[in-house]
Amino acid sequence: MKRHTITGGGGVPLHVVETGNPAGPPVVFIHGFSQSWLVWGRQMSSELTGDHRLIGLDLRGHGLSGKPRDAYGDSRLWADDIHALIRTLDLDRPVLCGWSYGPLVILDYIRHHGEDGIGGVNFIGGVTRLGGEEALSVLTADFLGLVGGFFSTNTQESVESLTSLLRLCFTRDLSVEEAYLLLGCSLSVPSHVRQAMFSRTFDNDDLLPKLTRPVLVTHGTEDAVVKPEVIEKQLRRIPRLETHLISNAGHACFWDDATAYNRRLVEFVESARSVRAR
To answer: Which of 68, 213, 253, 255 is the most exposed, fewest CB within 10 Å of its CB?
Structure first.
C-alpha cells in the first residue's frame, strides 16, 4: 500500500492510503463518524485490488489526519478535502463511497464543486441531514441514546459509548483483534471533533433531485443505527437511484457481508463507466 499526506481545506494534512491497480477505475472510500480508513479493510485487501484503484481517506479529525481544534463547522472545508484528494492524486472521475456520516461529506463536496469531477456515488447506511426532527427520525433510539457519551471527556464514558456504537454497527461477531482495532480508531478521535461533527445543522435534500451522476444506495436490512426508512424518507428524491439491500447485515453492511457488497460495487463502477462512455 502507498501512503500519502495531502493538504485539505484550510491547510489540514490528510492521511490517505492507496492500493490496487493504478490503471484501474478509482474508488474512494470515506468512513463514518469516529472511524478511519481501516474500517474498509475487507475492501482494501480484497479481490477488488485486481482491477480497481482503491483509495482510503482518514477524514479531518480522524486517524492519522490533522485534528485542529475548530475546523469542522464549515461545509466548504469538508468539500475542499475531497476536492484536494481528487486533484492531488489525479483521480479520473472516481466513484465516491461514503458510509454513515460519509454521504454528508460527499454532498458537501457536490454542493461546492459540482459533479464534473466524479463518476458516481455510493451511499452506505447514510444520512443526508443533521439537526431537526426529520433528521432524527431516521436514526434509531439505541443510537441516539449513545450520543451524549460521544462528547464526554471522561475516558470511561467515552469508551463505553463508543464500544456500544461498535456493537450496533455489526451483525457479525468481531474477532478480538478486529474489535480492539476499530475501538482504537474510534478513541483516537478527540471528543471535541466528535462534538463538532454532530453540532452541524444542515439539510442536503435540496441537492438530491439535482444529482446527475449514478447513485447506488446500499443498506443493511438489520441496520441498528440508520433505519432503512431513510431510503423512502430522503433518498428516493434522487433521479438515477439504484438500491442494494444486504440481507442480515447491519450498519456496516460492507463488513458484515463483504462478498455481497464488493460484488455489487464492481457492477456499479462498471455501469457508471459505461454511462460516462456514452
So the answer is: 68
